[in-house]
Q: What sequence folds into this?
């Protein structure tokens, strides 16, 4: 793996400069995290019937998890900071004949939608926040956008991943600390994030968190 091939982050950067940089990654080609299908961990959730109600795909990229929910007949919304990713997601929806909504949105302004979602899927957004203060801010925005009993499923890079390529590694304690107030962390289990480069997956945590 060369330095230019190594992924530096996943979707979800929040300031203007980072948004521009992120958009340019999509404009240059297919990013390493854009595998063209749902992540296996989230596909399994769908197979188990755990993706239900109004679904939000947070940091949706080109929309595979949003479209997975839409294919189940669910009301599905995806948001991302990268305009190019959102344009690609809309094209996918049209090509597949699926009804889904895609929005260009800063994750830290999620509550500005004024909407409630029963299931939130997050692959790679949580671990992309560069500022430690952004994680509890995001949790607060998320809580304002979910009813009591709603579920947040989060897939993030784990501190079990060797090397220093890619996004920051997240410890279980960081997840629990970010969701300490107003949430129940039901489980945090080892998982994988598939990527398009060698190695073809990264060690991850799959967190199941309920809004209280």
A:
């Amino acid at each position: 793996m060369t330095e230019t091939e190594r992924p530096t982050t996943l979707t979800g950067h929040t300031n203007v400069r980072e948004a521009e940089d992120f958009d340019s990654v999509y404009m240059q080609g297919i990013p390493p995290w854009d595998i063209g299908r749902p992540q296996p961990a989230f596909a399994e959730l769908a197979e188990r019937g755990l993706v239900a109600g109004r679904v939000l795909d947070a940091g949706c990229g080109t929309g595979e998890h949003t479209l997975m929910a839409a294919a189940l007949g669910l009301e599905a919304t995806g948001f991302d900071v990268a305009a190019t990713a959102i344009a690609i997601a809309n094209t996918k929806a049209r090509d597949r004949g699926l009804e889904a909504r895609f929005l260009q949105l800063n994750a830290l302004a999620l509550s500005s939608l004024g909407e409630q979602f029963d299931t939130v899927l997050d692959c790679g957004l949580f671990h992309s926040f560069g500022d430690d203060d952004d994680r509890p801010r995001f949790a607060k925005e998320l809580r304002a956008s979910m009813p009591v009993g709603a579920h947040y499923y989060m897939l993030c890079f784990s501190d079990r991943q060797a090397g220093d390529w890619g996004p920051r590694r997240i410890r279980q304690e960081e997840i629990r600390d970010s969701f300490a107030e107003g949430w129940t962390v039901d489980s945090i289990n080892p998982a994988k994030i598939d990527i398009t480069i060698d190695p073809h997956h990264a060690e991850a945590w799959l967190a199941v968190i309920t809004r209280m």
Remarks:
- The chain has one domain: 16-211.
- The longest helix spans residues 83-96.
- The chain has six helices and seven strands.
- Strands lie at 55-58, 76-80, 101-104, 119-123, 151-157, 183-194, 201-211.
